[in-house]
Write a structure and sequence with these properties.
globular; 64 residues
Length: 64
Amino acid sequence: MENNTRDLEFLRFKHRHGFEVPAAVLDRDVTEDWVLHPDLVHTFRGIYKDKTEYWTVDAACEER
């Protein structure tokens, strides 16, 4: 559960920085196993596409 909570906080960080993170992901029960949400692919693609503009979020992704 610790990893699930940390992952959720990471996604909330991205959401606070203007990235689209589906409400279903932000509101999920962290006691349940993680299930990939297809809409997150678009979010991560945007981060990696423009590393200059989103370098802080990109760095956070790499630390994960």
